[in-house]
Structures are given as C-alpha cells and as structure tokens.
Amino acid sequence: MRIDGGAVVEGYEAVLEAVGFFEISDQGKIEVKGTDRVTFLHSMISNDVDGLMEWNGHYGAFLTARGRIVSDFHYYKLPDYIIIDVRNDLLGKTIQTLEKYVVMDEVYLEDISATKRHFSLQGPRSLDLLQALFGSSGPSTQYGMQEQKWEDQLVWVIRKDQISRLGFEIILPLPVGDRLQQAILEKGERLGLRRVSEAALEILRVESKLPRYGVDMDENRYPMEAQLHEAISLTKGCYIGQEVVAKATHVGGVANLLMGLKFKDSVVPPKDSPVKDGDKQIGIITSAVFSPRLGCPIALAYLKRPFARAGEQYNVDTHEREGLAAEVVEKFT
Asked: How confident is the model at residue 1, as a pLDDT?
C-alpha cells in the first residue's frame, strides 16, 4: 500500500472491511423554523423540499441566479423544523444566502452548531455497532433519519452511505458527546473499529468520486459540471438558478465534466496538473490520491465535454514527469 502511516492504513481498511469511526462536529447546523420554512426552502434549494417526507433528507445546493454553486449541504425535514447540515467553512455564506431572501416569509434561522456533536460510522459492520448502541438497525434508506435515546437524551441517527456501502451518522446534544464516543470505541473494539484519519478520508472521498467544495468545485462551477446529479431535482418548480440548470440539462449541456482518472504509473499528480490529448490541454486535475484498493493513483479532473468519455486514454504532465498515462472512468471500481 502506498499510504504513509499505520493509523492511516488501519482506518482506511476498517471502512472497507469492518467499521471506521470519525468525528465531524465541526459541521455547521442551521435550524430553520416558521410556518413558511418549507415553501421558502423549496424555492431556494436545488432539490425537493415540499415533497420530502418527514424524517428524511436530501443532498442539495444553493445556486446563484446564473446557476453557479454557492454551497452544497445535506438537509433533513423534521416535524417542526428543517436542519441544514453544511461544512463549517460554508456555514457563513449559506446563512447569508438564506437571510438575503427572507423578506415577508415567516422563516427563522438559528445557528445551532455549537450545541451538537456529530459522529460517523462507516463500513460493513457499522450496522452491528448501531444495534449494540441503540438496539436498533437504524434507517433503511439513504438519508433516512431516526430519533433514538442515549442517557435520556434524544439523538438523531441518519443513514448515509457515502465513502462506504453502509454508513450512519449520529447527531447528538453536546453534553453527552464524550460518553457516547466512549461507548462507540468500547463496543466497536470487538467489531474491528478503528478511527479514520483525515488522510484516509481523503482517499475514500476520491475513490467515491465525491467532489469537495473549495477543491473540486466553487462558485465558478455549475452543478452539472461537477455531476451533482443527486443534488438536483429536474421535476420541481422554480428555484434560484433553475432556468440555467434546465437549459444545461435539456438544451446545450455544459462545457466541462468532472470525471475520474486512473493512472498506470505510480506518480500522484498534484492539483492543477494539466490533462492533455497529445499537445492539446483538455482538462485539469482537482484532486488526486494513491488508492490502495486499486493499487494505483487516481484523480478527479474536469475534462472538456467532447473528451469526457469513459475508456479514453490521455496524458497528464507534472513537475516530476510528463506524459503520465491516464484512463478516463465514470466510477472507480
């Protein structure tokens, strides 16, 4: 394996073979209340809110009027409010975007980030660990949400298969966070639980072809370029940027697509390395890692649309080497 550090390897392998644990309490949490919360967010978010059943969630985004990505996040519909779960570095601009459009609507926003802890269990034995903790198998569908009790405190259990084929997240009140974490570590030990480092998470993220805001996409990109199909509803009514998304989907498309690249060499290309077809630059690397599972470097790269075809062979130039052979793939399998 081309990973430095035993802890990185152990965490990576645990997600693939047993259960990996990591904390994401630095995620921002926005609580949206008020009688107009559903209609307001339905007109803002790129995905469905009105038709979403309670105790379920979606992946979505806020877009500019020109259809570019402001922020991406997950959101969950509870009986009395909606929770937006967004990366901390996107929290401020997400709140500002919402506040900008709240005019006559009865909508109230509260940043509750500091009141919550947020854990993730990922891997084939995460269900066993969840049952050991709560006596429950958890939600059965992606982004489904359940309320459970821990020490008489209500916690949210969310099904989220992203870097693994099976995974769950637990959002809980701050005061019981340390004790639940200790229980996770103790009960998970017999299941092969390991902590997952940031380095291991990055490898798993790229293997799962999950673009990261600020790295693989930003406010200069359209969601269709980043292939955020899961974040876009093509059947709901108007929302900010919807007209651009509709035209790009049904009429002209976009100029670039985020694709996977699989390398035959051992060199991991740095960010912004050019992708070439002969002498012509046809794309650019955004993220790259060495994949132990595949035994080679892999990358995410924007390619000009005519060249974004699985199976095509191109070259990537780096400071160390020129002409690294790379194959375009839709998924890393």
From this structure: 38
